[in-house]
Structures are given as C-alpha cells and as structure tokens.
Amino acid sequence: MSTLKTLTLVILIQCTIFTESSQQPKQKKVNGYGDNVFNVIGFGAIGDGTTDDSKGFKQAWDVACNSSAPSPTVLVPQGKTFLLQPLTLNGKLCTSNPITFQIDGRIIAPSKAGAWQCRPNCDHWISFRKCDGLLIKGSGTINGQGSNWWRLSCKNKNKACPSRKPTGFVIEDSNNVEMNGITFEDSPKMHIAFERSTLVHAANLTIKAPKNSPNTDGIHIQHSTNVSIHNSIIQTGDDCVSIGNGSKYINISNIECGPGHGISIGSLGINGKTEEVEFVHVRNVTFHGTTNGVRIKTWQGGHGHARNIKFEHIISHASTRPIIIDQYYCPHKHCRNQTSAVEISNVTYEDIQGTSSRRIAVELSCSESTPCTNIIMKDITLRYKDQNAHTSSTCLNAHGFRIGRVEPNVPCLQKHDNL
Ligand SMILES: *[C@@H]1O[C@H](CO)[C@@H](O)[C@H](O)[C@H]1NC(C)=O
Ligand SMILES: *[C@@H]1O[C@H](CO)[C@@H](O)[C@H](O)[C@H]1NC(C)=O
Ligand SMILES: *[C@@H]1O[C@H](CO)[C@@H](O)[C@H](O)[C@H]1NC(C)=O
Ligand SMILES: *[C@@H]1O[C@H](CO)[C@@H](O)[C@H](O)[C@H]1NC(C)=O
Ligand SMILES: *[C@@H]1O[C@H](CO)[C@@H](O)[C@H](O)[C@H]1NC(C)=O
Ligand SMILES: *[C@@H]1O[C@H](CO)[C@@H](O)[C@H](O)[C@H]1NC(C)=O
Ligand SMILES: *[C@@H]1O[C@H](CO)[C@@H](O)[C@H](O)[C@H]1NC(C)=O
Ligand SMILES: *[C@@H]1O[C@H](CO)[C@@H](O)[C@H](O)[C@H]1NC(C)=O
What we know:
By secondary structure, this protein is mainly β. It has one domain: Single-stranded right-handed beta-helix, Pectin lyase-like (Pectate Lyase C-like, 3 Solenoid), CATH 2.160.20.10. Helix content is about 10%, strand content about 50%. The chain contains 3 helices and 31 strands. The protein has a 20-stranded parallel sheet that branches. It has an 11-stranded parallel sheet with strand order 5-8-11-14-17-19-21-23-25-27-29. One 2-acetamido-2-deoxy-beta-D-glucopyranose (NAG) binds near residues 62, 65, 66 and 93. Its EC number is 3.2.1.15. One of its GO terms (molecular function) is polygalacturonase activity.
C-alpha cells in the first residue's frame, strides 16, 4: 500500500470514529441477524473472557431500548465468553417495550473479588432496573465466579472485605418480566433476586453452586407480587427459594431442590421489624438431601404475618427437617425470648411424602404469645431414611387440624376427618 493510500485510510478511520462518538453508538454490521437484533459484538463487546465487555452490553441495551424495530432483541451470542463488571441496565425511559435479552453465550464476573469495580459496596452484579416488559431467555450461562467471595470473611474486619457481597442477577422495580432457560452458576451471594417487582415469571432455569458456598440462595423474592417460578433445578449452599417481606401471590412449582436449605418463607421480623408474606403456593417440589424441606422462619420480637400458605405434592429424599416452622429463628444463637412475634396462620401441608434424615421429621416451634393457628396437615408420610422406620414430631404452641393419614403423628393438631 502506498503512503498516500495509508494516510487517506487513517484519516478516514479517524473521521469515522469522530463522527460515531459524537452521535448515538452505532451498531457495526454483524452477519446473519435481522434489523431488530442488537448483537453485543456489534457494539464493541469482544467475548474473549478477559476484556471488560460491560460497555458493549450497555450500548447494545441503550440502542435496543429506543429502537423503532419490532420486538428489539439484545443478543449475547453463543460460543463466546463475556466478562462483565457490575452493570445496571435501566429500562425507565425506553420507548420500545418489550425488550428481549437473548443470552446464548457465557457471561462471567471478574474472578478475583478485588478486581470488581464497585468498592466499597458491591450490592449487585448484573441488574435490570425499572423495566416494563422484559424477556430474558436463551441457552447461555451466567457465572458469578463466587469462590473468592465465599472465602472472604467479613467478621474479622478484613481490609479486602467489602461491606456487602454482591447478588448475582437482580430484577428490580420492574413489571412483566419473563425469564426462561438460562443457567446460573457460582454467585458470590444470592444468584437471583426479584425486588419491588410485579408479574415476574421464571421457568426452565438451572442454578448451581457448591453445597458449602455461603448465602448462595437460588432465587430470593422481596417486596414483589404475582411471581411464579416453574420447572427449575436449583442446587446451592443456601435456600433454593427464599421469600422475604412484602411478597404475595407467589407460585412455585416443579422444582428439583438440593443440595441446599430448602424452600423458605422468611426469615421475617428481625430486630422487631414488621414484615409480611401471604398467598404462597408451593407444589410439586422434590428435595434431595436438603437441610430443610418447606420452612417458615421468623425472629422473636417481630410483627406482621406469614399466612395463607400452601405446600403440596412435596417429595423429600432424606432432608433433615422436611417440615419446619421456626418462630425462634436465631442463627447466631444470642436471642432473648420476647413477647411479640410475626403471626403465622392458615398454613396447609398436603401430600408430603418421602424420607427424613433425622428422626424428628415435623417440627412446629411457635411463639408462646402468638401461637400458630389453622395449621392443616393432610396425607403426610415421612419415614426415617436409614431404617425406613417411624419418624416423630415436635409441637410447641401450634394449633390446627390433621386430616387423613399423617405420619409422624402430630398430636397438637386436632384429628378432623371432614374438611
Ligand atoms: C430513549 O428515549 C427517551 C425519550 O425520547 C430518552 O429520554 C432516553 O434518554 C432514551 N434512552 C436512551 C438509552 O437513549
Ligand atoms: C420450558 O422449556 C420447554 C422446553 O424447551 C418449553 O417447551 C416450555 O414452554 C418452557 N416453559 C415455559 C414456562 O416457558
Ligand atoms: C398461581 O396459580 C394460580 C392457580 O393455578 C393462578 O390462578 C395464578 O394466576 C398463578 N399466579 C401466578 C403469579 O403465577
Ligand atoms: C396478582 O394476583 C392476584 C391473585 O391471583 C390478582 O387478583 C391480581 O389481579 C394480580 N395482580 C396483577 C397486577 O396482575
Ligand atoms: C415490609 O413490607 C411492608 C409491605 O410492603 C412494608 O409496609 C413494611 O415497611 C416492610 N417492612 C420493612 C421492615 O421493610
Ligand atoms: C412435577 O414435576 C416433575 C419435574 O420435577 C414433572 O416431571 C411432573 O410432570 C410434575 N407433575 C405435575 C403434576 O406437574
Ligand atoms: C387460607 O389460605 C389459602 C391459600 O393457601 C386461601 O385460599 C384461603 O382463602 C385462606 N383461608 C383464609 C380463611 O384466609
Ligand atoms: C425461650 O422460650 C422457649 C419456649 O418457651 C424455651 O424453650 C427456651 O428455653 C426459652 N429460652 C430462654 C433463653 O429463656
């Protein structure tokens, strides 16, 4: 190439860069996709697993967000690995709804906790905020590289320890969100959180982290209503699903849970707080060696309620506490007995079968001042796993009914055959 040609080319490129950066980010042509598909590769993402691709993702989102194309789709293509620093994609001012986020490739976080660009607080890794109409789907994987965080102890004021560990994937202040098919692995803390959102439907998810990874809940629901979670496999070091304050109309079904801590409502009422959860329906769930099966846990001294809850068609394979209500929840073991409690009422357990790894398969520990009421058990058979022998129950301040076969016997519930 002659010097003159090279010079002209350099000038041309520089002009192009200049004009592009002074306007909206412009998509480079990437082969094989329609005009409504915004491939992150076309917006500067590299996908080599080491370059920070956050900017490319953000630009693809911003363009899709105001695209006039029908059903705009941000594409994270398969066969590549994208490294993301903490990233928030905001849907508040988007004119094109709904937006599809198609994840077929692999997304990873920085592997060393110290390489995260979010000091001092790392609350979230990837978050979708204020979206109305969002479909997140695909065959891809989102890996939070949590192992370095799991080792960080924050108890000894370790300098390297940030004040909070990040939740992997957050949907917040959003409506009409659907998630389908994605795999989540090794989050530093919870894998997925739905916060202050309504009409969120998740299905066909796979969530995996080691059994001993701390606080790696599968999905946490907080201040959210009309949420469903279906057909998913969740194996973690904490609750498969946990349901916190302000949540109602929650359906959870067809879940394979374990290892993990089971499906939990709560903990509610820490430090005297008023917290409430209601209308939760959990059905067709299998627990594999979990520490709890279906659990409701509240701190002493709280206010509010957990009520109108149904657990049905549950199978336990050797979980430690298949059925538990714990109104004395106190993981740090320094709790005073107090007079107030989050009120637990109208909880139905129906068709719960399988084995328990502990003799006591049913534990109802309710508050003295605020007993549990209208607890209903119907068709329960839980056997002790080792000898296929009988299990037993413990009961404290729990009232309600048992219908049909209930094994172990739960004598604090009145026998009632016509409900
Ligand atoms: C989308 O358009 C709205 C309204 O025109 C504008 O306020 C907003 O900044 C745009 N968003 C992006 C990401 O460009
Ligand atoms: C889950 O995936 C299956 C198979 O890919 C699909 O048929 C089904 O519709 C999906 N479920 C939901 C609720 O989208
Ligand atoms: C929960 O299930 C009930 C009964 O199947 C259904 O009417 C309701 O719409 C579901 N709600 C959600 C949020 O999926
Ligand atoms: C949420 O679910 C409840 C009960 O099914 C229903 O009455 C309510 O209309 C739903 N809310 C929305 C926003 O769809
Ligand atoms: C719990 O949720 C309720 C209802 O959304 C709210 O009024 C209350 O302030 C929340 N409590 C706490 C401690 O955040
Ligand atoms: C229960 O869940 C399993 C998968 O965990 C599924 O194969 C089965 O069809 C579900 N049964 C019902 C009644 O939904
Ligand atoms: C008890 O809870 C169920 C949902 O599990 C609900 O359908 C029913 O209306 C509740 N009953 C009362 C008396 O609140
Ligand atoms: C608190 O109350 C429970 C139930 O009555 C009792 O078993 C426990 O010993 C009490 N703990 C203390 C510290 O008083």
